[in-house]
Structures are given as C-alpha cells and as structure tokens.
Amino acid sequence: MNDIAMKRPRVVIIGGGFGGLWAAQSLARLPVDVTLIDRKNHHVFQPLLYQVATAVLSPGEIAQPIRRILHRNKNTEVILGEAVSFDKDARHVVLSDGAIVPFDYLIVSAGARHAYFGNDDWETEAPGLKTLEDAVEIRRRVLLAFEMAERDAYLAGDQRTLTFVVVGGGPTGVELAGAIADIARKALAKDFKAIDTSTARVILFEGSDRVLGTFAGDLSESGKSQLEDLGVEVRLNSFVTEIESGRVKVGDEWIDCDVVLWATGVAASPLGKALGVATDKAGRVLIEPDLSIPGCRNIFVIGDMASLMQESGEPVPGVSPAAMQMGVAAAANIARDLKSEPRQDFRYVNKGTMATIGRSKAIAELAGMKFKGFVAWLMWLFLHVFFLIGFRNRFAVMFEWFWAYLTRERSARLITGDAEELGEATRLIRARSAPDRSEQK
Fold first, then answer.
1. What averages of pLDDT result for each successive group of 10 residues across the chain (441 residues)?
2. Neighbouring C-alpha atoms within 13 Å toward the C-beta of 345
3. Residue 429: its H or E element
C-alpha cells in the first residue's frame, strides 16, 4: 500500500443506494477523494416503494437527489453515469459512454433486480418492485384496472370482479397484497359508482408452506392471519408456472386476473460478474470476510451484490441495514489501510426485522421480543420515517400517513401515460375475457 500512501487515494463508489451512501458518508472526513457514480441522480428509500405503488405517497417523498444528500462532503463528487466494466490491473472503471474513471479503492454497491428464474419474458406482464419507475408503473396498472372496470360497467353493463395476483409471500409481496386489498375495500369504495370495488379479489401465491418465511413461525402465522383479515386469499405451496396477458397458471389451473405483480426472486447486478471473480447462482459476488474480492484487496463489494457467510453459517441478508453496515465497514477498512493498521472482518449486527401488512397491521421481531398488530405497525412506521433522508421528506411522509390513516384517502392516485398507452393498457386488461379462455382451461 506504499504507493497509495504517498498520495491522496481516489475512492470510487458504484451505486447510490444504502451501501454506497453510508460508505460515502463514512469516508467524508478521511484524506481521500471520493467519486460516487450512479445511473440515477437520486437515492430511493426502497422500503417505502410499495407506498408509492399503492398511491399513498408520491415518488418525491421517498427519494432525494444524491448530490443534495452528499453536498456537505467536501471530498466527494457525484457523477451521473452507468458503470459497465472494470480494469482491475489498470485500476479504472469504464462507463457506458466510454469514459474512464480511475481509482485506488473501489466499492461496488450496484444493488439487485428481480429475477424471473429464466422466464424474463414474464416481466412485461408481471412487473417487480425495485425502482421508482417500477412503483409508478404498478400504481398505473392497479388504478387503471379499477378505471376500466368502471368504464365497462357504465358503458356496456359489464359487471365483473377484479382480480389482482401477487407472486411471492416475502415482505414486498405481503405489503403489496395487503395495501391493494385495503385500497379496494376502503380507500376507493366511495369513489366508483358503477362497480363495487370491495368485491375485488387479491390472491397471494407463495411457493413455500408459509408467508414471511424469515420470521419466527408464530409471527409468520400472524402475518397470514392479518392478510386474511384484510380479505387477501393466501395460497401456500403454490408455484406460478406460467404468466400470460390477463392470466397466470398455478399447477394445472389457469386463473384470470387483471394485474399480476412479481415479488419473489432476486438477481444481483450483472456488474458482479464483470469483476471476474466467483459468484453464486443469484449473481452475488463471493467476497472475503473484510468485504474485499479474492485477489484484490482494494476492491470491495457490498449490499445486495455481496455473498458472505456469517459465523452462524447463515448468509448476511440482503436487507438495507446490512448494506448500511457494510458501507461503514468497507470505509473503516480503507481508513485502517491508510493508518497501516490491520483490517477487521465484517460482523453483521441484526437489530431486528419487521414487515407491514396493512392499516394497523404488521409484525416485528426486535431484541428477541415479538410484536404484532397495531404496536408493530407503529414501530415500523416511526423507524422508517426516522431513516428517511431529509427533514422535508420525514415531515411530508408523516403528514401523508397521518392523513391516510384518518381518512383512508390516497393523495397520489395519478394514472400517467398518453391516450395511446392507456389504450394499450386497456386492451391488455380486457385480454382476460377473451372468448377462447374457457376452452384452454
């Protein structure tokens, strides 16, 4: 490290998510020059994406420009760009436009996307939820389904039951299913005249024998019961084997539906493979205990892109607290290098897990204690507001939640898109009533 110690090291961070931001903040007072590169100019608070997808919050309330977040860091520059490859020997990052960004240390935290298990064509019919764009698209599809049902009932007398399918019973799937059920039964009930939104079906399919499988068994069962109280049909040990426009196949059964949402399966950013080291089946990089990659101590991989086993034999989970802790740990090891001190292995501290299910419904496991229902929901609400970046965001989110709780109103019920796009969406929604469907079942 002598060549690095002789000059001010250049630290490049790929990704402005939780891991990248916490790394940048931890490096702010070190004698290094930091460059953070991201394809988007904003950081998204991903745990609240489903609130945008279900029209409770607007995109700007859970996102903040990265440049604004880091504006006090005098040693940090933010670059809008997409990293596509690396030259580990020459120590530089190659961007999509051919630009070269040199580094002495590299922290890669490019996150993950949803995986369709080899069926990537399903994404068109069943969007997942990882970005603001995903959330806005899901909101558009859900609200448009109600609008088209109202239109058909008014103009053609076509009364039918709306059906929403959510694939995956993890936290995202449970949150989406519960929120859609609440929208249908309460929030929209008085707004539509020709249809009864409360009759809409919300079906959640989970391939294992319980939802929220990372929680203790009793909390998982409580989560299932709370979903069912909201009117969600929970089908366990059920694998979706095919998805077409307007329907899904589970086993030998075809189920007609208006909207399908994907909430299972995660694939790490393809940048992991570009590093030229071993990855697991999900594309996560197999890293060393100090978070560096094998053979390159100056390159760290953190967050959803990293695969690291804990002393317990369990992998470090792909959750935001783990990414934050990894970001801080990677920066700390760089600081130790600069002081010629030995590095420390990463130790994940699990401070608890929680999942919201619906209005006043949630489960939480903190410090060995378990919480359910309204208390867990309050804990979830305040913890997520606390971690939101920017006072304006916290104030706006708290106000919107308080208003939604009192009135059940959704302030962000906007359907975006021009007439041509909406016409195509209408065609897709009506595909479920094609005359040959009954013959194919």
1. 66 96 96 97 90 85 90 96 96 97 98 90 94 93 92 88 96 94 87 93 96 93 95 96 95 94 92 95 95 97 96 89 96 97 96 85 88 88 71 64 60 62 53 49 42
2. 9
3. helix 419-430
Nearest to 324 by CA among 54, 6, 17, 107: 17
pLDDT at 425: 53
2-39+81-114+266-338 CATH pick, 3.40.720.10, 3.40.190.10, 3.50.50.60, 3.40.50.150: 3.50.50.60
What is the 8-class DSSP label of residue 187? I
Q: How many CB atoms sit inside 10 A of residue 216's CB?
A: 13
- Kindly report the number of other CB atoms within 10 A of residue 195's CB atom: 23
What pLDDT was estimated at residue 403? 65
Q: Within the chain, which residue ranges are assigned CATH 3.50.50.60?
A: 2-39+81-114+266-338
| Residues recognised as catalytic | 175
Alpha helix segments (H runs only) across 193-318: 217-229, 271-274
DSSP state letter for 110: -
pLDDT recorded at residue 234? 97
Please, where in the chain does CATH 3.50.50.100 lie?
120-262+352-440
Phi/psi for 377 (5° steps) reads -65, -45
| CA distances to 96, 212, 231, 323 from 215, in Å | 41, 6, 22, 20
Q: How far apart are CA 368 and CA 364, in angstroms?
A: 10
Contact between residue 264 and residue 176 where contact means Cβ atoms under 8 Å apart: no
What pLDDT score does 6 carry?
57
Please work out, in degrees rounded to the nearest 5, the angle formed at the alpha carbon of residue 167 by the alpha carbons of 181 and 438. Answer: 90
> Is the pTM higher than 0.90?
no
pLDDT tens, residue by residue, 345-358: 999 998 888 898 98
Cα dist from 237 to 169, 234, 244, 416, whole Å: 11, 10, 21, 36
Q: How far apart are CA 173 and CA 227, in angstroms?
A: 11
- Give me the CATH code for the 120-262+352-440 domain, please: 3.50.50.100
